[in-house]
Amino acid sequence: MAPAFIGLMGISALAIFTEGILKMASPHYIEFLTLLLLGALTSRLKLKLPGVTGNMSVSLPFIFIAMTRLGLLEVLVVAGASIFIHRLPKR
């Protein structure tokens, strides 16, 4: 059951990424590069919220801003870069 779910999620992600490439609009280079840089730099930081047992990555607001300001492909790149850097092992 779990391998089928993971496979379905991978296929869905590939379909969304392909749709983003096919429907790519004129990019906003400065906004995209700024949000990509800020999302990548802040992805290693964590914010402890009062009253919550977990924490939140500081890059989340930059991903949300990218979702409202940029195209699908650009949002996927910003989110993917943030997640990739967040998952790198710490020294």
Characterise the protein shown here.
The protein has 91 residues and is mostly helical. It has one domain (2-87). It is 67% helix and 7% strand. It contains 4 helices and 2 strands; from the N terminus they run ααββαα. It has helices at residues 2-22, 29-42, 60-69, 72-87, and strands spanning 46-48, 55-57. A two-stranded antiparallel ribbon has the order 1-2. A hairpin with a 6-residue loop joins strand 1 (46-48) and strand 2 (55-57). Helix 1 (2-22) packs across helix 4, helix 2 packs parallel to helix 4 and helix 3 (60-69) runs antiparallel to helix 4 (72-87). The protein starts with a helix and ends with a helix. The mean pLDDT is 85.
Task: Summarize the model shown.
By secondary structure, the protein is mainly alpha-helical. It is built from 4 helices and 2 strands; from the N terminus they run ααββαα. The model has no long low-confidence stretch (mean pLDDT 85).
